[in-house]
UniProtKB/TrEMBL annotation:
Its main location: other. Pathway: Lipid metabolism; fatty acid beta-oxidation. This is Fatty acid oxidation complex subunit alpha. GO terms for molecular function: (3S)-3-hydroxyacyl-CoA dehydrogenase (NAD+) activity; enoyl-CoA hydratase activity; isomerase activity; NAD+ binding. It is found in: Peroxisome. The gene is fadB. It catalyses: a (3S)-3-hydroxyacyl-CoA + NAD(+) = a 3-oxoacyl-CoA + NADH + H(+). GO terms for biological process: fatty acid beta-oxidation. It comes from the Bacteria. In the N-terminal section; belongs to the enoyl-CoA hydratase/isomerase family. The lineage of its organism: Bacteria, Pseudomonadati, Pseudomonadota, Alphaproteobacteria, Rhodobacterales.
């Protein structure tokens, strides 16, 4: 029983009890239908619906999506609630989301606690509201406000809901009590049913303009635009026809790859930090963090830790550098203040009481976890870890933020390799969601658990990675960047590649990203890797030449693009450098189409990801997907590279890789795991399922 029926005097109470979030699964839907029928039969004068536990209904049960729908369907449930002859009151707390809000819109009266949130987040699942909200909400709050809620997916607070007219009142207290009190009041007034569907439809707005605005923001995602279509239907059709149109559009979206990609992202995001080996392993206590190096990354990491309420001791090389680091942190914090993320009090407390900047490592003696973010150089890192070994207290965790270097080698420079771990943040570290938790061969399980606990505290999506050059993300990045370089040698331009990948849904193409990160970073990395390169590797030199000319991207105003404020245009120096290199190597333009570029780029990404999985660096395909989604701007609606690969079909992808290998057998070596999956007729999702079993 997920809906409990109870009489409290004249009032029938329907209590939802389907933890953790009262999702509207089949038994809940049936319970609502039965409860409303029973209340209408047994003489109740009002019906109160409320949720047990932490929330009102947080939406349809997403686990049912993609399976055969089970009766009663949610739109019918909302209609049945609305058709009740006895007034129905929604008493909301927690998060009334998606189908949850739609049930509330089916009710005749709505009351909520001040902390309740309401929203229509279906677009984040590649869908639109499918249980009447596209028809009822515009009748209640107007087209523009309804479109905003549906296309942004952003929840609103109770105050705003009251102002908009979604709820009738806000009351403090237990949801059952406020529901009962409101019901009594309504009975006293002899209040009648008040179906939202009977309200007139407001005058039409300029729906084409609304669609254009939404299309611009959605970067290739379909569902926000379809949401506008559904709302527009309300102006052309009567309520029941509008509902049928909503259902048709909803079911069409249900069939799309984007829906599958986004639901994969939803569950992947929640699954990724659940590691079987950490079940029952208690993390170590962390109250004070040490950060070594207050440059770009150290300042960002310190900011993230401070914002989460931790004390931070930051070590720099000189007093001036320590002061500069403090300035960077203060800049980050004033940004947080401006955006309303913190109050002035907290801001002042953090800067005055929670942060210590110093130059002597002795200041780290009380730190529970110390993160090194100094220059990317093994000798420097070893020296730092050697010093840490002498000052850090017993049991302190020693972490490196290295982007590429071998965490095991760093650990070996200490007398306590079990306490050493990689915590790889992304820039800007107080903003970017991804944290790679790099587990060395000697890292102790409770150190790993502490890495994940810290990630959670800092609001990060933490992903476990083994040790290899670049870990999961940067290793894959290096491979698809190499592929882009090869495409360029063979005829593509950086601008064509950026356009194709932006068309795929990346916010920025790879060359614009390189400009943003700084071309010197890639340059330094190429120099580092040069001695270990295989003679068969194709490494272009045009990028080095750009750097030799002092063009490091956005920070110098010139890279692949020339920057003028926020505007960018192709740098006219780039193509001549590329053409000169092609001529020198005797290469001809292969005239790649956009589709050929996309196929090669994505094949390179998926193939490297499959190698990383096969080697056990990533444990599950979803781990790779979450790294690319949260650290590299991979479009969420494509689910991540391995989800995308599944949706394309692995045999065709492997066939592509084999055909590319005829031109460059060294670069295009198929991943053994990919070959195995194709031979066995399985895919990456099968591996995710096996890992979850
Ligand atoms: N269906 C099924 N399971 C759900 C769910 C849902 N709608 N919402 C959350 N869950 C599960 C999560 O997967 C998680 O499971 P796990 O413990 O096994 O990992 C558990 O509930 C707890 O969720 P969170 O960890 O996310 O808990 P939080 O407290 O951080 O957040 C929440 C709670 C804000 C409700 C968040 O879970 C959320 O945003 N859920 C999705 C809400 C949503 O998208 N609703 C719309 C669904 S589509 C719809 O309604 C279609 C309709 O128009 C027809
Ligand atoms: P940075 O050059 O901005 O900052 C490094 C800081 O470390 C400098 O302020 C320097 O004074 C300080 N420093 C150097 N040696 C020190 C020592 N012995 N003791 C105390 N302080 C010392 O470099 P950035 O970009 O912050 O990178 C730091 C680390 O983070 C590197 O390992 C890098 O690979 C990694 N990283 C960088 C990312 C980026 O996008 N910049 C992303 C993720 C990781």
């Amino acid at each position: 029983m997920t809906i409990h029926y109870e009489r409290q005097g004249d009032i029938a109470v329907l209590k939802a009890d389907n933890p953790p979030v009262n999702a509207l699964g089949q038994t809940v839907r049936q319970g609502l239908v039965d409860g409303v029928a029973r209340a209408n039969e047994d003489g109740a004068k009002a019906i109160v619906i409320y949720g047990e536990g932490r929330t009102w209904f947080a939406g349809a049960d997403i686990r049912e999506f993609g399976k055969t729908p089970l009766e009663p369907y949610l739109p019918d449930v909302c209609n049945i609630v609305e058709a009740s002859a006895v007034p129905v009151i929604a008493a909301m707390h927690g998060t009334a989301l998606g189908g949850g809000l739609e049930v509330a819109l089916g009710c005749h009266y709505r009351v909520a606690v001040p902390t309740a949130k309401m929203g229509l987040p279906e677009v984040h699942l590649g869908l639109i509201p499918g249980a009447g909200a596209t028809q009822r909400l515009p009748r209640l709050i107007g087209h523009a406000a309804a479109i905003d809620m549906m296309t942004s997916g952003r929840p609103i607070g109770a105050d705003k809901a009251l102002t908009l007219g979604i709820i009738d009142k806000i009351e403090t207290g237990d949801p059952l009590e406020i529901g009962l009190a409101y019901a009594q009041e309504l009975i006293g007034q002899n209040a009648q049913v008040r179906p939202v569907s009977a309200l007139p439809v407001p005058d039409a707005i300029d729906f084409d303009a609304a669609r254009d605005a939404v299309r611009k923001k959605s970067r290739g995602q379909i569902s926000p635009v379809v949401a506008v279509d559904a709302v527009e239907a309300a102006t052309r059709m009567d309520f029941s026809e509008g509902l049928a149109e909503e259902r048709r559009l909803f079911m069409e979206l249900m069939k799309t790859d984007q829906r599958q990609g986004m639901i994969h992202a939803f569950f992947g995001e929640r699954q990724v930090s659940k590691l079987p080996e950490l079940q029952g392993v208690a993390p170590r206590d962390v109250a004070e963090i040490g950060v070594i190096g207050g440059g770009t990354m150290g300042a960002g990491i310190a900011t993230a830790a401070l914002l989460s309420g931790l004390h931070v001791v930051l070590i720099e090389m000189t007093a001036e550098a320590a002061e500069a680091a403090k300035g960077r942190i203060a800049g980050n914090l004033s940004g947080a203040l401006k955006r309303g993320k913190i109050e002035q009090d907290k801001h002042d407390h953090i800067l005055n009481d929670a942060l210590t900047c110093a130059t002597d490592y002795v200041a780290l003696s009380n730190a529970d976890l110390i993160i090194e973010a100094v220059f990317e150089n093994m000798d420097v890192k070893k020296e730092v870890f050697g010093k840490l070994d002498t000052v850090a207290k017993a049991g302190a965790i020693l972490a490196s933020n290295t982007s590429y270097l071998n965490v095991d080698e760093i650990a070996a420079s200490t007398s306590r390799p079990a306490d050493v771990i990689g915590l790889h943040f992304f820039s800007p570290a107080h903003v970017m969601k991804l944290l790679e938790v790099v587990v060395g061969k000697e890292t102790a399980p409770d150190v790993v658990a502490t890495g994940f606990a810290l990630g959670k505290r800092l609001g990060k999506i933490s992903v476990r990675s083994g040790v290899c050059d670049g870990f999961i993300g940067n290793r894959i990045l290096n491979t698809y960047r190499s592929c882009a370089d090869h495409l360029i040698l063979d005829g593509a331009s950086p601008y064509q590649i950026d356009k194709v990948m932006e068309g795929f849904g990346f916010a920025m193409g790879p060359f614009a990203v390189s400009d943003l990160a700084g071309l010197d970073i890639g340059w330094a990395n190429r120099k580092r890797l040069a001695p270990t390169r295989d003679a068969r590797e194709r490494v272009p030199t045009y990028a080095d030449k750009l750097c030799e000319d002092g063009h490091f991207g956005q920070k110098t105003g010139r890279g692949y693009y020339v920057y003028d404020g926020r505007a960018k245009s192709p740098n006219p120096d780039v193509m001549p450098l590329i053409q000169a290199e092609r001529a020198e190597l005797g290469l001809t333009d292969k005239g790649y189409s956009d589709d050929q570029i996309l196929r090669r780029y994505m094949a390179a990404m998926v193939n490297e990801a499959a190698k990383i999985l096969g080697e056990g660096i990533a444990r599950r395909p979803l781990d790779v997907d979450m790294v690319l989604l949260f650290g590299y701007g991979f479009p969420r609606y494509n689910g991540g590279p391995l989800k995308w690969a599944d949706l394309q079909g692995l045999p065709a992808l492997l066939e592509d890789i084999r055909s590319f290998a005829q031109e460059d057998a060294y670069f295009w070596q198929p991943a053994p795991l990919l070959e195995q999956l194709v031979a066995e007729g399985r895919n990456f999702e099968d591996l995710n399922k096996e890992a979850a079993a």
